[in-house]
Amino acid sequence: MIDPVQIVTRTIDSEQAAEVYVTAIPRASVPLEAEARRMFAGIRDVLRSGGARLFQERVFAADETFEAIMAIRAETYGDLDDGVPPARLIVPEEASGKIAGIQVHAVRGPSSPEPVRLEGSVCGRTLCLGDRMFLGLSGLAAPEAGAPPDQARVMFDKALRILDGGAGGIEAVARTWWWLGDILAWYDEFNRLRTRFFSEHGLIDGRTGRVRLPASTGIGVRPAGGAACAMDLIAVTGGGEATEFLLAGGRQQPAFDYGSAFSRAARTLMPAGETLFVSGTAAIDASGATVHAGDAAAQIEATLANVRAILDGAGCRDEDVLQAIAYCKTPAVEDVLNARWADLSWPRVTAIADVCRDDLLFEIEATAVVRR
Length: 372
What we know:
Elements: E1 7-13, E2 18-24, H1 32-50, E3 53-61, H2 66-77, E4 87-90, E5 99-108, E6 114-118, E7 121-129, E8 132-141, H3 148-164, E9 173-180, H4 183-200, E10 215-219, E11 222-223, E12 229-237, E13 243-246, E14 265-270, E15 273-281, H5 296-313, E16 321-328, H6 331-340, E17 348-352, E18 362-369
Parallel strand pairs: 3-4, 9-10, 16-17
Antiparallel strand pairs: 1-2, 2-5, 3-5, 4-11, 6-7, 7-8, 8-12, 9-12, 13-14, 14-15, 15-18, 16-18
Helix pairs in contact: 1-2, 3-4
């Protein structure tokens, strides 16, 4: 069981580099400023003690809190703040308060992550180690584009410009996160846009049947700052074929069969070794149908079984999970998760959010180390 006052850290070490995954979970009924300072100070101390620098970061909190949270973050991090903002993700105020959690992925190595700029704004980091380059984008958005589908199109184009500017192109993308406000109103249209974009740029080849799709989460979490949607991604390039895409995984067939252009998981070579990115997973059977509609406990159980089947297929166990995010449709679903799966050892943030179908109550994603 994760102690809610802990800063949970998982570290992978190799001769080349170390990766540090930090999950900070708030305590209940603690004033926002005091808790934010405690969480960022805990992350700061972990990174400084390990000589690690930020690669990706996410903050889940109530909308009106981000100005105060970002000021506390800058003050607390000091020189760890390289000017790249975290993905700032809006979730309702919960029993734990106005901040739901913070996730950090950091790296220690012979070189440090460098900020990525587009149109004068910083939106991510690159890291070069030997013959490989790693790109992590956080909160890339296009609020200036208008309606949500138009924002998505421009967001795709922005990511492509960064990728084509030296990050290996779109084929280097191993993992994506799509933060989609009001997801149930336009998820079908988003899927069509994503499929068209991937087809236009070669990830889906209708002539040869070749399909090379990143692992992904598409979830009803709105980014802060007024955008309708935003994206995070990880791309890996150099040194040969870096990523294996698992269209099907565990007990689930390809999501592409029912119109969602993502792989169930991706195995890729990250700075400290091989990592398994398990896509956002829900209670969906092999035919693509929702199971256990209306039954939160049964959906959670089915979802965890689906994820564990993917983990098992890669030789991973529960203790190999580095980070996870659980998405619960309502606080009542979160109560079921906490009551019945209190012993789930995955370091995780829990967010209240709509899942991509109205009859889905729960979704979870996981990142795990593949130990050989």
